[in-house]
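[STRUCTURE TOKENS]
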Amino acid sequence: MNSFYNPIFISKVLKNYLFNIDRQRRFNDEELSKYQNKNFKKMVQFAYTVPLYHHTYKKAGIHPDDIKSIEDIKKLPTVSKYDFKNYYPDGLVSSKIKKSKLIEVTTSGTTGKSLSIYVDMAEIVNGLFGYIRFLREHDINWRKDKLTIIGDFAPHTAETGYIYKGIQSQFGKNLFLKNIQWLNTNDPPEKVMEEIDKFKPDFLGGYTGMLGHLALLKEKGFGQDVSPRIIASTGSSLSKSLKEMIERTFNAKVFESYGSTESGPIAFQCRYGKYHIMSDYVYLEFLKDGESVESREAGKVVLTKLFGNGTPIIRYNAMNDIVAPLYEKCNCGLSGVLIDKIYGREDIALYSLDGKILLPSSFGEIFSKILYELKTNKLTDVRVIQHSLTKIEIKVVIDEKLRNVGPSVEELFSFLIRNFKEKLGAGVEIHIKEVDKIDRLKPRIISKVDKTKLNITGYA
């Protein structure tokens, strides 16, 4: 049965639409804390009906009745990606829920290790309401303004599950929100820009790399009718210089959002540029050696999702994101915890000679510079392999149509070598090899360095 023909489901959707979207603006911190406690206890009770959590908690000697508030969260053991894989598929679903009524979605597999979980239609809709929240904060009306969203619509990605298998399967592709244009980030930037130019959106959202390529195309005269008021970047950290380039080129305000397949939306930047955690949707712990970090100190994220009847996400430690919280207040008036900086995935890291860990926010700047300094998008794909602290191999794919346009390939290679040496150390040997294709199912960043033998001095 189509969920949207179910009056009970529709009433819940309407209630969530009326009360969920503006909750962070309506609730003060005390009210938000009470809401978190209520939903956290409910999720732990529900998780106990899911084999993965039931067995894990029973083994640890924990019962849901032991959990009185979110302050008790550390009584619960963490769960890993390996736990999810071991219990897949049936062990990830509650005994009270029919798996046939759920939708399977898969993580991007950036490290070459994808993960499948299950969500229900209510979770998908609630997640969309989360995105509507940050659109509202930037004065975008999701019903009246024209929105272009560039997602990863490869066959088994989360976006495909949420949009094509979820929302559009219920409404029909041609009936669902004609003011929203869905484009695929895996398509060539020229094709994406052509489609955006026809649609003329007020809002443009997409992955950081694609937005950078589109800005460069705009500078070169493409997409003359592409003039969004607001642009949202997601997927990886946006360097200050690349953000300025995108804002200048499109004459639009750019903000960043942060989310995951496992939870949906997690945080977004308000109009003051502060990163707000959607604390009614998720609860984040920031841990270093198992202990909570101080404000502005980098820690590993442990994720808990506070809603849903699909696969529960409680103390999930496999996001591998390194993030620094900010325990301050923002003048925008939203309640909840702030984020100071998102460093990126701990398992997508390189290591420098002086003991620094380079996460995506650091080495991603190099590839951003190719766009805003060299002004070229001829580099279409890359894989970096760190064989040792002193030897790096970089495999690149060059767009043949652009090979002889702009800076030469040799200039590009010299640029990469110079910038990687600046990050990793002048004594590092860097070899660049041009290849025809890079397998997108395998990791783009690989380090063979044994970090357990390193004297880690911090994050670069």
